[in-house]
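Researcher: Please generate the 3D structure of the following complex. Treat every line as part of one assembly.
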Amino acid sequence: MVETTIKKHNFSAGPAILPQTVLEEASHACLDFNGSGLSILEVSHRGKDFDAVALEAEALVREIGGFDDRFAVLFLGGGASTQFAMVPMNLLKDGEKAAYVDTGVWANKAIKEAKLFGNPEVLASSKDANYSFIPKDYDIPSNAAYLHLTSNNTIYGTQLQQFPTSPVPIVCDMSSDMFSRPFDAEQFGLIYAGAQKNIGPAGVTVVIVRKDLLGRSGRKLPSMFDYRIHADNGSMYNTPPVFPLYVTMLTLRWLKANGGLTGIQQKNEAKAAILYDEIDANPLFKGTVAVEDRSRMNVCFLPTNPEHEEPFMKAAKAAGIDGIKGHRSVGGFRASIYNAMPQSSVQVLVDVMREFAKLNG
Amino acid sequence: MVETTIKKHNFSAGPAILPQTVLEEASHACLDFNGSGLSILEVSHRGKDFDAVALEAEALVREIGGFDDRFAVLFLGGGASTQFAMVPMNLLKDGEKAAYVDTGVWANKAIKEAKLFGNPEVLASSKDANYSFIPKDYDIPSNAAYLHLTSNNTIYGTQLQQFPTSPVPIVCDMSSDMFSRPFDAEQFGLIYAGAQKNIGPAGVTVVIVRKDLLGRSGRKLPSMFDYRIHADNGSMYNTPPVFPLYVTMLTLRWLKANGGLTGIQQKNEAKAAILYDEIDANPLFKGTVAVEDRSRMNVCFLPTNPEHEEPFMKAAKAAGIDGIKGHRSVGGFRASIYNAMPQSSVQVLVDVMREFAKLNG
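Model: Done. Output below.
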């Protein structure tokens, strides 16, 4: 194996940390995939070795998420941003209403694209509070084609802790908390997620869609934007993003071996708890969002004294901590603690916060 | 470095062979990218290390291809199949005419998508001859929005040896011979190419478009399907396919270091010559397409005696030759000899053909 340099503590918001064993397998496959003597980067996507990868990836999504045959599981290129448009293209009829909840930048982009194809109605928004909470008090119109939610808001550090009961299918952008906790597949009409937070590297997007919703809009669509084409062809209508899909399969294997959604939830809750506990206990830091909406994936916090921002960042860097600069629209710090983040790394951050308080408190 | 198994001779049509040094660098970057201590699979696409990769990839495309500031250079997800739709969405007005030359399956898919947005006129087709030649005798209407060509037809093994003089911008699908030979950038309005033949792995598509054509259709487009959005954001409107783009940059670096388009053309011509010479000299094999349209990338040939197909395939496999089964619509054999294919591997194939003729002639 390649000699690695000392591993940093990678708190990046995404693309984000992946399990070390996955990185090692991916590295090896770049030279020799499956003992074939060929690189994963130069094999046919229609060969039996890669076909097995695609089938296993789909089977793992079904098993881990509890999606039976009523759902199609697709792996697409183009990123979750492409889904902002593909969802209404495929599901929303001309002039028809779709319900959206505005919880931040990504929800807004989804709303913007839906306007090109139908009539998105924003049921609720926390924009006036800089998206520091998740609106929960709204009625879902039963004549909407679907209800669109963003389960986790990376920028602000908010997360939907409970999905509402909805009279219409829920469409959910789970890009930043996909497969980080158990959920009830029955509640959803469509789930999409760019892989690059919890389930793989950038370059592949998972779409899970109830088959009875396929073709709902009745619209004539370009083949590549039509879920039906991808479903009918097992995501092999065109050349898929081979390597990103392979690494996603490896990451899903790791997730299954590490207890699936129940197992990972316990770990994620424990990691979030020690960090939020420190934020609440440490007089030099404060959280940025409503306590009940705190994300288990992206922990945003500010220094109580703005002058502490730079020296704390320096102290964190010195401890090998990477990627905790907050998004410009919130400021301060953001520690992203996705599935693959070990608790030991979170503890390093907590220790730096304590030490910093001792020296500067 | 990782210990590699003995390298096979990879004649796959695509995803296809990449330079060994590129595979080794890619493998290393999966564990430690740029000495950062982080994997290329887990770093932010907005960090300075990856930003440098994206900028270098663009600069290399410009330098190698001779594209000045009048062109935008984009790296997109979704594959060339997405471009079949994005080209008319962006360039073709409702009801307007676009000229297409039908040289095979991929050209047909492009024509099919164009019908959703305007009026594609097929100027010429070699369908009746199973696409065994490239039609050249046609007039290009000066009121067409563009002329769409497929420069190389992977399935049939035909290649456009000279681009026509056109009164309208040429849009060219160069997926399977991009950067395999010099060409005059001035002739083109738009070029697109899935990376997975000559310039990288699957998962990223290069689009080079004349800036004055951006927004030509006047259509309101979803952000992800609008070239202007990607051009205005340096292909970073959303998270790009980070790893495929990185490996593409490495492959372009390799291409530049190996003499650029002039250098690679010499090597490609030499490789094609020794293989076609053998096909023409060996009584047990025959070519499948018009001699003047023979592709330098995909060399298709049949056994003169159909019963020889299986034993020859066995003999080739025994010599470490991989991926030469012909496409089902042509049959026989197809040896894809893209940029990264060494002449020594082509020689191995030629030697097997000679030996086979000795034993079976």
